[in-house]
Amino acid sequence: MYSEKVMDHFTNPRNVGELANADAVGETGSFKCGDTMKLYLKVKDERIEDIRFQTFGCGAAIASSSMLTEMVKGKTIDEAARVTNQDVADELGGLPPMKLHCSNLAADALQNAIADYKSKQRSV
Amino acid sequence: MESRLVYMDHGATTPVRKEVFDYMAPFLQERYGNPSSLHTPGREVRQAVEEAREKTADALGANSDELYITAGGTESNNIALRGVAKKRGKPGHIITSSIEHHAVLDVCKDLEKEGHRVTYLPVDRYGRVDPAAVQDALEEDTFIISIMAANNEIGTLQPVREIGALARGKGVYFHTDAVQVVGQLPVDVNELNVDLLSLSAHKLNGPKGVGALYMRKGVKIDPLYRGGSQERKLRPGTENVPGIIGQGKAIELAVSEIPEKKKRLEHLRDRLIKGLINIGEVSLNGHPEERLPGNVNISFKYIEGESVLLSLDMEGIAASSGSACSSGSLEPSHVLSAIGLDHSTAHGSVRFSLGYGNNEEDIDYVLEKTPPIVERLRSMSPTYRSR
Question: Which chain B residues have a beta carbon less than 8 Å from that of A20?
Fold first, then answer.
């Protein structure tokens, strides 16, 4: 049911864990299935220098989280902000229809992390 | 790299045993007659079909003329509930439980649309229906009670005998979906006061696509299909002869082995439960004692069932889950919700269902492979870290 790429990211997820000195944190939960995700960003000169995630969810949720971190690492905040859940699903070689919402989890966590970053910038 | 398969999803289906396959195989080729035909090839097959019916009936303590062959558990449940409602011909009241299989629940929902009223009884935290609640739910026009003999997900056994006695006293039909129980535990329709009972061959090492409905003599029912006079017109259509023959053999074998198998599976089940609970922050779903001999249903805290299944599958272990992510509907199983599990505990549920062929080495293997899987997934989980 899952593509090889999904299974690869599920089995060997990239950038798992926490960042102690994160500049921004984004959390989200899927109202659909109950999965949750937490994303940590380290930002330098408006660029995502480091990224980590933690996910409580199914294979597609874990793979989407991992794929997203790979896609946005090294991107500027503005570039990253344009990554959609469809981009994540496409990069994974597609997700089963019932699992498309799992890529939302990753995209939403990123948007929340970026919002957190921006609000912190304003308050500095 | 060792490649081994440890199949622990016998609640979903079971392999056909060799003795069963050998017994039914001739009916796929040389013994092809239609049992309704008058000629010798037909009459010989008719005799074999009736012998299989007798074996199936014997296994339930029933008479063979009370045993109707169907296409499986789902069809048996449909014929029983819809057929009795159809014969009644006017709206009435039905009692069932909130943890029935969809082959009962969704039929009841349909019957509601047709004007019947249905009480879906709640269950306690172990998944048990209280017979007193059945008593309280009875109404003037209650015409059938349908309570499963054991739950397919959490394995909890229901007080069928008590509910049967109550129904008998009130003159209300009692149907039980016994798909998970026949061949696992002794079933006697008279002892259990059952009027209608559904069973399925592929759950007891028989072939798929065949089952049976036991119906006590005198039960008034209308058929759902029209056609020939097979199965005394209750289920017309040319018989699935190889299936029927296989079902007869499978049920005969399964029932004769119950005492030995029950002991063996209960021992393996309890070893597996104990070993999994030892991982820590793991809880058992369903009743600790009143449960199917082969059923293990547990929740791993902080992780999700489907990701556990995928990981187990990579190690050659086949199990199942009632989590929202593995359901196809994005809802946690109605059974886990009914026993009061919170969303995240239901999310981490995994069912291992043991059967014929599982042994001590399988338990060793699962207990060796599972802890690192749980550890890995927990290490990724935000809820685990932030406790």
Answer: none
Q: Give residue-wise pLDDT tens across range B29-67.
A: 999 999 999 999 999 999 999 999 999 999 999 999 999
Tokens 């699992």, residue?
Answer: A99
Question: Higher pLDDT residue, A1 or B17?
Answer: B17
Cβ atoms B228, B36 nearer than 8 A:
yes
% residues pLDDT > 90 (chain B): 94
Q: Please report whether residue B110 resides in a domain.
A: yes
Q: Which domain holds residue B164?
A: 18-256
Q: What is the CATH number of the domain that holds A112?
A: 3.90.1010.10
Residue numbers in A near B384 (CB within 8 A): 56
A58 is catalytic: no
Q: How far is CA B304 from the centre of its chain?
A: 25
- Regarding whether B238 and B316 lie in a shared domain, the answer is no
Pairwise CB contact (< 8 Å): B382 & A36: yes
Sign of CA dihedral B164, B169, B170, B173: positive
Tell if the CB–CB gap between A33 and B324 is shorter than 8 Å: yes
- Give bridge partners of residue B7 from the DSSP assignment: B318
- B250 and B270 belong to one structural domain: no
Judge whether B272 lies within some domain. Answer: yes
CB contact under 8 A, A54 and B304: no
How confident is the model over A43-58, as pLDDT tens digits?
Answer: 999 999 999 999 999 9
Q: What is the value of pTM for the model shown?
A: 0.94
Contacts 24+ apart (CB under 8 A), B19-24: B19/B249, B19/B253, B20/B205, B20/B206, B20/B207, B20/B246, B20/B249, B20/B250, B20/B253, B21/B246, B23/B245, B23/B246, B23/B249, B24/B207, B24/B242, B24/B243, B24/B245, B24/B246, B24/B249
Cβ–Cβ contact A97 with B under 8 A = no
Minimal CA separation from B365 to chain A, in Å: 20
Domain range enclosing A41: 4-123
